[in-house]
């Protein structure tokens, strides 16, 4: 029985029709390019805005290393507008199937709830990961050209850490998409929760260890300092537990047919 | 490195050097807007609030086209 | 082959199903009738697993819903509105369905496509289909897949007279080859020509389940029987 594969194919054709496969990578390319360009031309931009007087620029601003700029791409672009875009792109994942009756239709076929969720999650996570990866690579290209280059091992390590945080974001929105019925509500709850998670990072070490957004911070630390943070393994473990929890709740919700009664 | 810029220096900025860097960047944003607008135009008969979507796509950088793709194209996928 | 016992379901403190008891034998063509709101769709949804009933058991060939995949392979369900992607062609949709039921495309498919005269439409996107055509597509899928039982919610709605004839023939052939059919309907005059047995649902209970010839006797029509039973 290969219903997972069949469902992933269905998911693929759906994504293709939504143009998601085109615009999601494009958005991340845009976000990835923004940070290095902004950082590099900030003095010029300030000049234009500042009028005739001329401003002195903090020298450290210009002397950023490639790693710092790449970290800023993750922290100020992907973790803000990027997260919002991911939420918006994924909010209808299960919700649209619920409202159209497609979910009920699919679940009366020989398809397990796990392969339904699995097909959705695996395919869409791959799509988001590839998009983030492409954006990250474009950012790197610009950084290589405008700043210093970044060491390959740090580069890949940081991306992998960051993709764990992305995995949590995707599975969390999938859960919201199963539990809630209004797209607007899913978007608002999703964006606010994920942004709060991100903002809480750095307040307290204990909090950081259980915060999935800590993985994003680990990625940035790796790029800036070149060393792995102290509680990376705990953070990784806890994040994976969070991901499993969201998947289990999604599974339970659909299995209990809660979607049908509300 | 010179850290003081005046207006004269601004004019002296080598735009030709900047262009190859900025151009692809701007092109990406432009492509997104273009795809959204073309889709909106091709489906103008079935879409609602065409004027608002056009403004949103043109004025809200990135978010505008994305919102259009996710929410504005909904009627293309009913059952 | 399909046994329902003591099926109960409440919706916002209103009892929709009050202990439905139904036993369908292999080879039956059971017409399931009842007034609006009697609980026909709720019963069908409970069998097919769209709903979880509050109480009661449902068994198909000795399997229950907890057997999941094996249970779901026992039937093909056609809901009253067939959900399909607008941009998918009927052919792609059927291929998708066949794959879900672990089946390859055979000449059976083209035979039924021809029977329901969908040769031209099958390659067009399903968004262009009428309500009746969508039902025809679902029927083609059902007869091609040939599960042990086909369960349908109002399959006759939207079908043109010719399609109803084809439907009747296909059902008869399918049952001859060992299938079982269970469908709800409001169209009593057509039902009495197709069905071998009839079950009437009233206030969440089965009040009659009988061979259709026996029920109707010599002069009665299904309609008159139904009206009589509703009044009681």
TrEMBL record, chain A:
Q: Does the keyword Hydrolase apply?
A: no
Q: Which domain of life is it from?
A: Bacteria
- Per UniProt, what is one Pfam family of this protein? ABC2_membrane_2
So where does this one cross the membrane? 21-42, 125-147, 159-179, 185-207, 228-254
Q: Does the keyword Transmembrane helix apply?
A: yes
Q: What keywords sit in the KW lines?
A: Membrane, Transmembrane, Transmembrane helix
Question: What's the name of the protein?
Answer: ABC transporter permease
Species the sequence originates in: Viridibacillus soli
Lineage, broadest ranks: Bacteria, Bacillati, Bacillota, Bacilli, Bacillales
TrEMBL record, chain B:
Q: Which UniProt keywords apply?
A: Cell membrane, Membrane, Transmembrane, Transmembrane helix
Name by which UniProt lists this protein: PLDc N-terminal domain-containing protein
Q: Which residues cross the membrane?
A: 15-38, 50-71
Q: Which domain of life is it from?
A: Bacteria
Q: How does it sit in the membrane?
A: Multi-pass membrane protein
Annotated Cardiolipin synthase N-terminal domain ranges read: 31-73
| Localization terms from the record | Cell membrane
TrEMBL record, chain C:
Q: Where is the ABC transporter domain?
A: 2-228
- CDD domains hit by this protein: ABC_DR_subfamily_A (cd03230)
Domain of life (superkingdom): Bacteria
Give the UniProt keywords, A-Z.
ATP-binding, Nucleotide-binding, Transport
**InterPro entries associated with the record:** AAA+_ATPase, ABC_transporter-like_ATP-bd, ABC_Transporter_VariousFunc, P-loop_NTPase
- SMART domains according to UniProt: AAA
Offer one Pfam family short name for this entry: ABC_tran
What Gene Ontology molecular-function terms does this entry list?
ATP binding
The record's section on PANTHER family has:
ABC TRANSPORTER ATP-BINDING PROTEIN ALBC-RELATED
Supply the name of the protein. Answer: ABC transporter ATP-binding protein
Write down the species: Viridibacillus soli
